[in-house]
Amino acid sequence: NAGVTQTPKFQVLKTGQSMTLQCAQDMNHEYMSWYRQDPGMGLRLIHYSVGAGITDQGEVPNGYNVSRSTTEDFPLRLLSAAPSQTSVYFCASRPAGTVKSNQPQHFGDGTRLSIL
Amino acid sequence: AQKVTQAQTEISVVEKEDVTLDCVYETRDTTYYLFWYKQPPSGELVFLIRRNSFDEQNEISGRYSWNFQKSTSSFNFTITASQVVDSAVYFCALSGKLGGTSYGKLTFGQGTILTVHP
Lengths: 116, 118
Hints:
Chain A has no helices and 11 strands. With 116 residues, chain A is mainly β. Chains A and B meet through β4, β5, β9 and β10 of A and β5, β6, β10 and β11 of B.
């Protein structure tokens, strides 16, 4: 049972380059999210999806795109990398639930991204 | 808007000491969820506990205990008889609505770095 798998684990980019961070989960979870972690700021939500074909913006969406063509995959695209996007990125998933059964999110191990 | 504040940026203790990590939150929702996550030096996020707003019972799990007080909007975390393996960054988080009535958006505090010395 792999859980939430993120690839790559590390990446160095030059300013202006584009790339896609991959996230896959094998738990058939409806909800998937991307967060970025910066020192002293905790984790902040970039984009999220409540199901295949449905995505929406979180707190810090600028510079990132997402799509959700399948339940399993939720890639995060950096269109033109900037040094301000240097961060650790976490993908998370959780099953849908009612108001009284809010399940905890399962996090991937993170992708450490440096933009030079 | 939702907000989670962990006022303690760093805490340093000696092994076997008890330590309490503070968490204060703000939300307009009447139903909400609170979480604690641990991030060890290896970097992954480990879920520790979930608490919903209509259950104010405190909880104990081994050396860990949590004190939820709705009246003061606090959800504090205590480690009893700390160990070196407890050294990590600890995050408090609040779950808010993702449209409609579904919950999924986590608002995190800034994190508290706990160092336990032998």
